Amino acid sequence: MCIGGFNEFAATKQAIDKVMNALKDDEATTIGVYGMGGVGKTTMVKYVGAQAQKSRLFNQVIMAVVSQNPDLIQIQETFAEMLDFKLEEKTEIGRAIKLKEKIMRGTGILIILDDIWKRIEFSRIGIPNHNELLRCNSKVLLTTRRSSVCQIMESHAKIRLNILSKEDSWSLFVKEARKSFDKSSNFYDVAREVVRECAGLPIALIAVARALRDEALDGWKEAARRLQVSQPPNPEDEGDVFKCIKLSYDYLKYDDSKSCFLLCCLFPEDYDIPIEYLLMYGIGKGMFQDSNMLEARATTYLVVKALKDSSLLLDARAEGCTASGSW
Ligand SMILES: Nc1ncnc2c1ncn2[C@@H]1O[C@H](COP(=O)(O)OP(=O)(O)O)[C@@H](O)[C@H]1O
Ligand SMILES: [Mg+2]
């Protein structure tokens, strides 16, 4: 099933059902979802949040990204904005107190904390503790790559989001590559090989399918070869995502797109990057040598669109911005 670009893969459905059950459990106030980078945690909890609000399980859903280097003030700001009030206090602790008061005055709020890497004190942000959450019928839904973080954060339910099955991987890849891959075609075996290398990760399947969409058979064979031999620079890294994102970058057609992507990597993960900044940095880097300002701006917007189409960049929350992914 596909609703507005969201696919309910078998693995996704299994995890969603478990999350929904936990959200209905009166005793559970913190629910942890874990799984590899790029497996679909953020996409899934956004969908769950929307469903939970639509079905009136919660009155309101608020969400903030925590990421590897949490900016607590920014997280508080995001929550305050979503709850439609202003935090005037300067200090983290002062803001935390106000935020908690606001959450506890409401009822039935689902608080989503996306991409947690290490223990983070709810009280420092302004999230009520277990007993307080029980009192205001509110819950926390968190996502993380590490199952140990679910324990550290004292989650009452710990739900794993698995990689896609072979069948789901294949159908997502075929859809994104916009090809039919007839069994008798020369592309079939090489496409199967490429899909295997994507290891059931939606982000890898989408990035690689889009990169290869318009390539001839030789381009596909070369991609399969590169994916097979690719070694992540750091063995600790999740190599499958790395090699697929690298392939997607390598297959970008224009140097401007590559330069623009590298400029985006200078920004923190999950950051709304103003496209005008990319234009300025691009000029500073010596891009757009033969263009006037109007042409340079138009090129920057086109390049950003191409990078979003390749899934190397994401849509931002703010107008005129793009967002860097967190892989
Ligand atoms: N259920 C899904 N349906 C459609 N696309 C998905 C789904 N899950 C993940 N994706 C795609 O994969 C990419 C990575 O997913 P994301 O939720 O960011 O992974 P994670 O948060 O686990 O790193 C997303 O940008 C989205 O395009
Ligand atoms: Mg995520």
Automatic annotation (TrEMBL):
SUPFAM superfamilies: P-loop containing nucleoside triphosphate hydrolases. The keyword Transmembrane does not apply. One of its GO terms (molecular function) is hydrolase activity. InterPro entries: Apaf_helical (IPR042197), NB-ARC (IPR002182), P-loop_NTPase (IPR027417), Plant_NBS-LRR (IPR050905), WH-like_DNA-bd_sf (IPR036388). The keyword ATP-binding applies. It comes from the Eukaryota. Residues 13-178 form the NB-ARC domain. One of its GO terms (biological process) is defense response. Keywords: ATP-binding, Hydrolase, Leucine-rich repeat, Nucleotide-binding, Plant defense, Repeat. This is Putative P-loop containing nucleoside triphosphate hydrolase. It comes from Rosa chinensis.
